[in-house]
Amino acid sequence: MTGRVPVAVAAAALAYAGERVLSRAVGERPRWVRANFRGRPVRLSGGPALATAAITAAALAPATGGAVLTGGTAAALGLYDDLYGDSHARGLSGHLAALRQRRLTTGMVKLAGLAAGGFVAGRRHRGRTLPALADAALVAGTANLVNLFDLRPGRALKVAGAAAVLATPLPGAAGAVAVATAAAAATTLPADLHEQVMIGDCGANAVGALVGWSLATGLGRVGRSVALAGVVALTLASERVSFTAVIESSPRLRALDEWGRR
């Protein structure tokens, strides 16, 4: 466990410095600014800074090449969707409907890329196709699920950070990647809560993919099956039920969700 301390320190330092450098670099460029749920203009610089910090710190631990691949793929595709994405299709059903109309959305491109990155990483790790397909589903599904929570300041980081903390006891590289993800998320959280930055698809997809990779490589067969079933169930539920409505209807969930928010 002591070998993971440098990973956590590196992730926190990179996230802190990266967010400030990138915020100054992008300034108020229209493509990098979005209106949040209150209509307040917020920069998207938090996502690339968060993703870069978590991935770079994860790379310091041995045997984390698969995490770098999946996290980097998720970050790149998420940033592409943030800056050039088609926002007309919403949810999995919306993207599938667009596909039936022979219209390829950036969301579908992103999901296919996430699955492909997860499969390549899983194939390298396991050497077999069927388990690699399950790993790809868990990585892509977790990345997409974390992004579904990114509707209020800090919400996606709280969810992904909590999942990463729970995954830190996993052995070897899986636990090290979870430590890097948790540290980067915790460092970025204050700026997200205070509506100074957004993590966007880039940040949400990246931390989600890293958590998914940790679960896929660190859990046994039963654990992976349970995790994948949970991700699929929540994703399907999101097509019919608003996560925000569920959170706001529960006093405890609402208190956790609003904690630290301006």
Intertermini distance: 35 Å
**Structural class designation:** mainly alpha
In this structure, how is the largest beta sheet organized?
A: 2 strands, antiparallel
In the predicted model, the low-confidence regions spanning at least 5 consecutive residues are: none
Architecture overview:
The chain is an all-alpha fold and 262 residues long. The chain has one domain (2-258). 74% of the residues lie in helices and 2% in strands. The chain contains twelve helices and two strands; from the N terminus they run αββααααααααααα. It has helices at 5-26, 46-58, 65-84, 91-100, 106-126, 129-148, 155-167, 172-193, 200-218, 221-238, 243-249, 251-258, and strands spanning 33-35, 41-43. A two-stranded antiparallel ribbon has the order 1-2. A hairpin with a 5-residue loop joins strand 1 (33-35) and strand 2 (41-43). Helix 6 runs antiparallel to helix 9 (200-218). The longest helix has 22 residues, at 5-26. The chain is globular and about 50 Å long.
